[in-house]
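In the previous lecture we treated proteins in isolation. Real proteins rarely work alone, and many bind small molecules. This record shows how such a complex is specified: first the sequence, then the SMILES for magnesium ion.
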Amino acid sequence: MNQPDPRSRPIIEVRDVRKEYPIGDETVVALKRINLQVFRGEICCIFGTSGSGKSTLLNQLAGMEKPTRGEVRIGGVPISRLDENQLASFRQKHLGFVFQSYNLLPNLTATENVAMPLLFRGVPRREREEAARALLKRVGLSHRLDHFPRQMSGGQQQRAGIARAFIARPDVVFADEPTGNLDSKTTVEIMEMICTFARNYHQTIILVTHDPEMASYADRIVTLIDGEIVSNQRNQKENPRHET
Ligand SMILES: Nc1ncnc2c1ncn2[C@@H]1O[C@H](COP(=O)(O)OP(=O)(O)OP(=O)(O)O)[C@@H](O)[C@H]1O
Ligand SMILES: [Mg+2]
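The predicted 3D structure, ligand included, written as tokens:
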């Protein structure tokens, strides 16, 4: 009998997840019965039109919300059953986030924002700011280290957002429409940055988008319609530009 390859164990396992939102007397069923496995090192795109349930699925995967039914495991840990404190600590250790609206803290500089995840890991100030500056340089922001978010363009804020998401080398990085507010040239730069970080450290990416161009960066494309997975395919990349 063939033994499964230990490297190919899924890092994310979703079993029979359903998500309902009660609205007055009615119930919105945002996810119907989701089963999904994502493997370590994969860039997995959750793809679909507006309202198909992409953000809802990401929120269940990242433990931001509890599914109505079913279970989500990350690295074997049943995150859908952890309490708030356990979840917060799990997130700080294992997960990173890139937001469409950047979500940098307005009163902190680029360096301080990027260093934040290392503060939660107990890294001393000098060390974490050094690491933050080094990473900001890698994303092309060496001239914006001490700028506040309001002093940076959208693309610059998102570069800082990516540096913040990756600095603590999380196992999984979640990104919901990370380039939704950016032009097409900046979108390509940001996507290549995310893919390069992920490949270098064998990290798993969950990328939510409605844009086929962005989905083409992924290794796996999971398509949702009305809260159901209608296809789950390995992406045959035709464009070598996307390989890193
Ligand atoms: N907190 C909530 N309360 C009630 N209904 C919700 C809530 N969040 C999402 N929904 C509903 O669930 C469905 C899926 O929403 P979701 O935000 O996941 O879509 P999406 O695919 O991310 O769309 P978009 O591309 O517009 O961001 C929608 O019909 C939405 O109205
Ligand atoms: Mg959404």
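Summary for your notes: Residues 184-200 form the longest helix (17 residues). The mean pLDDT is 92.
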